[in-house]
């Protein structure tokens, strides 16, 4: 699935930042596939919309895994990018995800803390109970917000932002995300997505200082519709 301006869903924009609702299958930044990333699509969007001559600056603040949908923040100036990067490091940008999982977790609400180690060759992270060399501490909080016929909808708040963190940690407690073959779900979703959606973001605007709260509509898919 290639990104293009026609199917771009912009949730917020001003002179400093652009926030979009990424479709599953789109890539945030260029990778070895050579597919056009959202950062390039946004450069074209800004160039056309504001009649900008020359090169347009779009800075990628954070990424979402390719099969995941939802909120991604981009910066329109290097100053905004620098400030947003610092806010991410200082953990003052609150991100909430929705995940559709099989096997409802035993606890309705819980905090998961593990040590995750990324295997770059497999592009996969592995869970350890104790710290080992190369591992990073990972903490998330979840609550079950809806029970569907065969699945459960969880709301997940991240305390840390590790590689494949939500996917790995939920799989570890026996509740893999729907469609996520890499982490133990038994079959893929038809469109190659996984049922993980960056649903909400809350932060203080790096320049204007107003409080920004954005909610991203869920994918146009029967199982997501059943969650609303």
Question: Under the CATH scheme, which class?
Answer: Alpha Beta
User: How many strand units?
Assistant: 11
Percent of residues in β-strands: 25-35%
| Main sheet properties | 11 strands, mixed
From the alpha-carbon coordinates, what is the Rg to the nearest angstrom? 18 Å
Q: Count of helical segments? A: 4
Pattern of helices and strands: EEHEEHEEEEEHEEH
Please describe what this structure looks like.
The chain has a single domain (5-227), classed as 2-Layer Sandwich (Pseudouridine synthase), CATH 3.30.2350.10. 17% of the residues lie in helices and 33% in strands. The chain contains 4 helices and 11 strands, in the order E-E-H-E-E-H-E-E-E-E-E-H-E-E-H. Strand 8 and strand 9 (152-158) form a beta hairpin. It starts with 9 loop residues before the first strand and ends with a helix. 36% of the residues are buried.
Please describe the topology of this protein:
Elements: E1 10-13, E2 17-22, H1 38-49, E3 59-60, E4 69-75, H2 78-89, E5 94-101, E6 109-119, E7 124-128, E8 136-147, E9 152-158, H3 165-172, E10 196-204, E11 211-215, H4 222-227
């Amino acid at each position: 699935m290639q990104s293009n301006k026609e199917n771009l869903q912009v949730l917020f924009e001003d002179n400093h930042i652009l926030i979009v609702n990424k479709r599953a299958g789109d890539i945030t930044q260029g990778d070895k596939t050579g597919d056009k990333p959202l950062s390039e699509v946004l450069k074209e969007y800004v160039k056309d919309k504001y009649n900008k001559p020359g090169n347009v600056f779009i800075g990628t603040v954070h990424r979402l895994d390719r099969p995941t949908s939802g909120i991604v923040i981009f910066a329109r100036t290097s100053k905004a990018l620098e400030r947003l990067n610092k806010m991410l490091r200082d953990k003052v940008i609150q991100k909430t995800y929705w995940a559709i999982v099989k096997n409802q977790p035993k606890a309705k609400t819980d905090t998961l803390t593990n040590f995750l180690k990324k295997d770059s060759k497999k592009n996969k992270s592995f869970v350890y109970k104790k710290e080992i060399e190369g591992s990073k501490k990972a903490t998330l909080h979840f609550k079950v917000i809806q029970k569907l016929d065969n699945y459960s909808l969880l709301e997940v708040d991240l305390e840390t932002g590790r590689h494949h963190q939500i996917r790995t940690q939920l799989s570890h407690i026996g509740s893999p995300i729907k469609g996520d073959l890499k982490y133990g779900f038994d079959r893929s979703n038809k469109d190659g997505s996984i049922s993980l959606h960056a649903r909400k973001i809350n932060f203080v605007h790096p320049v204007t200082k107003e409080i920004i709260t954005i909610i991203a509509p869920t994918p146009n898919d029967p199982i997501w519709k059943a969650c609303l």
